[in-house]
Amino acid sequence: MSTTSRIGWYARRAARMSPAEVAWRARDQALRMAWSRRQVRREQIPAAVSPPRSVHQFGALLPPLTATKVPEEAKAAVVVAADRLIRGEWEVLSVARTDLAMPDWFRDPVTGRRSSPDRFAFQINPRSEHQVGNIKQVWEISRLQHLTLLATAWYLTRDQVYARRAADQLRSWCRENPFLSGVHWTSGIEIGIRLISLAWIRRLLDDWPGVASLFEHDELTVQQIHWHQRYLAAFTSRGSSANNHVIAEAAGQLVASCAFPWFPESERWRQKSARLLERELLQNTFPSGIGRELASDYQCFVAELGLLAAVEAGAASRPLGAAAWQRLCAMTDSAAALVDERMRPPRQGDGDDGRALLLDAPERGSWPSLLALGDALFGRLDWWPRVTAGVASTMIGALAGAARSIPGRPAQRPSRFADAGITLLRTHGDGAPEIWCRLDGGPHGYLSIAAHAHADALSVEVRYGGVDVLADPGTYCYHGEPAWRSYFRSTIAHNTVEFDSRNQSGDGGPFLWLRHANGREISVADTGQAATWTAEHDGYLSLRPPARHRRSVQLDRASRAIDIVDEIDGGGHDLRLAFHLGPDVLAKLDGACALLRWPGASAPGVARLELPPQLRWSLHRGEIDPILGWYSRGLGQRIPAFTLLGRGHGVPGAPLATRLEFLSVGETEKPAIFRSAVSRRVSDSLVSEAREIQTEAG
Fold first, then answer.
1. Are 558 and 471 in contact (CB under 8 A)?
2. Residue 266: left if φ>0, alpha if ψ -120 to 50, beta else—which one?
3. Tens digit of pLDDT for each residue in 658-685?
């Protein structure tokens, strides 16, 4: 980023802050610079570290025989993953690495850049790829979650090789990263997660003969744990940055102050972090349990962090309040309601595959792990999907003790989360593959910068048997590739309508939205045979002339079809309507009709997509100038996928009708006159209903 661009970004960022936040950030920056004299350099670490003068005791331990309760399949998966680590093999954010036998804590394998380990942390710009490379790759290993997995393997097998490797790497990290030296001291979220890892490494290695000399009898390790908590006590995310980062900071501080109550400040740190976590859990989530960032991955991440901290506090006989536990339970209940039949969550907003703690093999996935943990801590409800216990749910559940009874939990599976503007239309369990449709009719994101939101108002996400058909494209990257970052969170990258080649929300930088398009649900109804939804957003009212987009969607369960009707209030604008297909879906376009097939997917299927004939339709896949036709399975991954793009002009009173009909294999044609009659009838019905409700609402 050039100096001019950087100055411009800072100006835009400051414009999204309150005067109080500007003052706090100025104070914070001055404090950071003043702390330069507190930096500890690697040459100041003695070759032989003396034991600490005081005797320390670790916090709560796992109950006896916990290891015997871990399912054998989960145990075997951990051992396989740990053996890969012993060979130095690990996948880090889609990059296959072979250097994990003893990693270089500062080298980015993507760009090959290595940041300076001796530079004062607050003089490093972690967003600069020139300085640090791909910072997500560098930070991920230093979360030390691969060491929690090695410690888990020791706990389950008592094989010394896992404990010794974990101990060697932990000692290496502590020596290479003294206080405020290097990039690993630039982010509070990383420090909070690392504290959680340290607590669980110590807990899992408790019976290993070398654990005391690795932790409480090692002056450097004790000092590192103190440095981490001292940092979090001084620097806390606030204001427009108080999203999942502040949750991680508070959770890490609370876990550490309970697990390592070794310092004069420990009780003060515990009380402060508990209050902060309780307040921010309520601030960061809707009462329904949906995360206010409206980024599905971060809802799971925040729930994991909160549950880990709450369990740790309870094990230390310092429980969190009832309101925090109720909200954490709501987060797990809403997660159970959101997933499709294959336990896949929505793909709304940003996602970076982040985990609060890694005790299971990574292949298990974060959402199945969260639901298994919810089952252990609260008990699954009758409508929940079936969940299988894993290592994490068994161990954390054992540390927590008996499941908690939370009043007011939903008796039936919710399909609408009105406070978040999320509605699900889905078929019922009739033996056929589930049709699952997520609709977005809510706010843009959380706080003034909405850092992890996408410009996706009124977008639809449709799956067939858990297979992406109309797909949310995902995230792909955060840093280093601005054109790709902009595309994956743009309006045209989502299944909605773009006006005049502009995003619905104003983009000010990779994690900065200057103007927010907010949606409003107008009606949601379900008769059993059909479910309907209508919503609108205000993102294009700033155009001249002002324009409003209203969308109605109906799922007809009997015909296994989804109808989408887009109305445009305000003419004269160029429109682009995009439908992005999942990577398993093949497409053949004929005029305004596309035949879709996914023969090689887990639930093979065929569908016909009738498109609005007023628009000129084209098919795109894997294009880069401009970027179009891509899908990201996870951070760092992108693969080509088909996109159907319609271009034209908005005409008030002339709705755009789209029909997605799932067919029996071999059924590809129906008479065109029948199809058009059905589309006209459904379109007219949805438009009429939406207008009546709008009139009644004034």
1. no
2. alpha
3. 999 999 865 554 544 334 444 455 455 5
Residue with token string 């045979």: 529
Q: Copy the structure tokens of residue 156.
A: 């389950």
Q: What is the DSSP letter of 214?
A: H
CA distances from 59 to 163, 256, 318, 617 (A): 20, 9, 12, 63
Q: Residue 291 is which amino acid?
A: G
Distance CA 18, CA 56 (A): 44
Structure confidence by residue, pLDDT tens digits, 426-479: 998 778 999 999 999 999 999 999 999 999 999 999 999 999 999 999 999 998
Give the closest residue to 310 by CA, choosing from 264, 273, 339. 273
C-alpha separations of 28 from 452, 545, 546, 593 in Å? 23, 44, 42, 57
What is the torsional sign of CA 229, 233, 234, 238?
positive
Taking only Cα atoms into account, the Rg of the chain, rounded to an integer number of angstroms, comes to 26
Q: Check: CB of residue 634 under 8 Å from CB of residue 94.
A: yes
In degrees and rounded to multiples of 5, residue 77 shows phi and psi of: -65, -40
Q: Are 639 and 583 in contact, with CB atoms under 8 Å apart?
A: yes
DSSP string, 26-42: HHHHHHHHHGGGG---G
Decide: pTM greater than 0.85: yes
3-state DSSP assignment of residue 118? coil
The terminus-to-terminus CA distance of the chain in angstroms comes to 48
Residue type, 68: T
Checking 365-371 for CB contacts under 8 A at 24+ apart, the result is 366/297, 366/300, 366/301, 366/304, 367/300, 367/335, 367/339, 367/343, 368/343, 369/304, 369/393, 370/300, 370/303, 370/304, 370/332, 370/335, 371/332, 371/335, 371/336, 371/339, 371/343
The pair of three-digit structure tokens given for residue 237, joined into one six-digit string: 């995310």
Integer angstrom CA distances of residue 540 from 13, 252, 500, 563, 564: 22, 41, 9, 24, 20
Helices (H), 177-295: 188-204, 211-214, 219-234, 244-259, 266-284
For tokens 């059993």, the residue is: 528
CATH of domain 417-672: 2.70.98.70
Residues in a beta bridge with 551: 535, 566
- The conformation of residue 184, written as its DSSP 8-state character, comes to G
User: Within 10 A of 571 (CB to CB), how many other CB atoms are there?
Assistant: 13
The DSSP result for 464-501, as a single string, is ETTEEEE-------SSS-HHHHHHHTSSTTSSSEEETT
Give per-residue burial for 500-511: e unless 16+ CB within 10 Å, then b: eebbbbbbbbbb
Q: CA 71 → CA 14, 360, 627, distances in Å?
A: 51, 11, 45
Read off the pLDDT of residues 559-608 as tens digits, 9 standing for 90 and up: 999 999 999 998 889 999 999 999 999 999 999 999 999 999 999 999 99
Give the domain ranges of the chain. Answer: 417-672
